[in-house]
Every structure is written in C-alpha cells, then in structure tokens.
Amino acid sequence: MNFIRALHTYYGVIIFTLLFIVLFPFLLVPILFPSQYRLTGIINRWWAKLLFIFIFVPFEVEERTPLDRKRNYIFCPNHFSYLDIPTMGLNPVNTIFVGKSSMEKVPLFGFMYRRLHITVDRESFRSRGNTMIASMKAIDEGKSLVIYPEGGMVTQDVPQMVSFKDGAFRAAIEKQIAIVPVTILNNWKVLPDQLPMRLHWGMVKVILHEPIDTTGMTLNDVNQLKAKTFQVIDSELKQQNS
Asked: What is the pLDDT of residues 193-231, one digit of tens each?
C-alpha cells in the first residue's frame, strides 16, 4: 500500500508540473497584459480541475449562497494541506492568492506566482506591511483574494484551526468588501502535512459559505469579524469530523 501511495504521489507531482508547463503560455497573457487579470482565475480553475481528474481524486465545490461573479471578495479558507492551494483554484469566482514568498524560488513557477499573485514573508514586518498595501491595491483593481487567515499550515492539532491573523479582515473592512468563509474538508486526510508526503484516497470538497458583509464596519470590528469567520469554518469542520 505504501508503494502504491508513493507512486500515486510522484505521479501527481508530474501531472501538476506538466499541466503548469502546458498552461504557462496562457498565463503569460495576464502577466503581459495586467488588465486581463480575470484570466488568472479561469486558467487556475482549469489547472485545478484537470489536476484532480488526471490524478483520480474526486472533487466537489459547494456554494451555500450563490456568489456574484462580478463582485470582489476576500476568501478565507482553513489550511491543513498543500492540496488546499489547487483546491482553491476550483473557486468559481476568479481570484488571486496571497501566499508565502518562498514560492518565488521555484523555477518558472515562482516567476508566474510573483507576477500574478501577492507574496508575503510572514517573518518580516516590512513584508507584511507591503503585502497589505498590495492587497488593498488589488481590491481597488477589482480583484478577489484568497488569504489563508491562519498564516499558513501551522496547527499541530488538525482539524483544529489556530487563531486567525488580522490582515484579511483589516483589508475587507478598509475596502468594505465581504469576507467569504471557506471550509476545506478532507484535504488533511487526502494529503497529510507529514513526511514522507503521500496521497491517500478521498474526496476533495470545498464549501463556500455565505459572505459576511462588512458594510459600516470599522477597524474596531476586526476581532468580531475574525471570530465570526472562524466560527463558521470551525462549526463545519466539527460537524463533518464528529
């Protein structure tokens, strides 16, 4: 069984890489022509769907409330597995990611990530400040963001989340746009964050909850907004894993 899982995992990495190579020329369009930023979400969606299809992992996206494709949101998912990144690519709303700056070091992929998404070095106060400025500028340009509010895969007690960082919620309130809590189920079982990394059989499922409106909120409401978002995701995780 371990041999089959290892083989499946290596196959998955190869498929991910090949799909990136095939789709990279199309990603050059929004890189060269930033006004075409919506293509980033469209291409990511095809990348994610083809990845899961080719590696034989079933997937499902559930919208609890239909989302307006013409509005921009900040999506806040739990983060327990590296599989969460392609999973959020399934998002029916075109988005860009706010992710760790170490991704920039990956050959070619890092070039794409740096140009189309927003990176942050969470150990650097200056980088975090620049990321906040870049995030709010992206919102002004009409972009939706995916921000993992735990600040990475940091919990030691999956599926219990750690406390959320402020960034996503400050940006949402500053720009008066809605937060969409996102529950990613099962990924920590399908691709656990442990060594050696191995794919297991299971379904990838992502639940997009009802948006939380921030109209009229001030920065004094950051903690309230964080708590509400945490509660929505946490309740779903507990319900599904009880």
From this structure: 998 999 999 999 999 999 999 999 999 999 999 999 999
Residue 239 CA: distances (Å) to CA of 76, 139, 185, 232 = 19, 33, 11, 11
For residue 211, is the peptide bond before it cis, meaning its omega torsion is within 30 degrees of 0? no
Provide the token pair at 176. 């008066």
Task: For residue 101, give the DSSP letter.
Answer: G
Query: Domain residue spans in the chain?
Result: 2-240
User: Are 203 and 56 spatial neighbours (Cβ–Cβ below 8 Å)?
Assistant: no
Q: Report the candidate in 158, 152, 22 with the shortest Cα–Cα distance to residue 82.
A: 152
pTM above 0.85, yes or no: yes
Question: Looking at the domain covering 2-240, what would its CATH class be?
Answer: alpha beta
By the 10 Å C-beta count (0-12 exposed, 13-18 middle, 19+ buried), 148 is classed as buried
Q: What is the pLDDT of residues 167-201, one digit of tens each?
A: 999 999 999 999 999 999 999 999 999 989 999 99
Rounded to 5 degrees, what are φ and ψ at 205? -135, 130
Gap between the Cα atoms of 102 and 33, Å rounded: 25
Distance CA 55, CA 13 (A): 9
Q: What tokens does 92 get?
A: 């029916």
HSE (side-chain half, CA atoms, 13 Å) at 214: 28
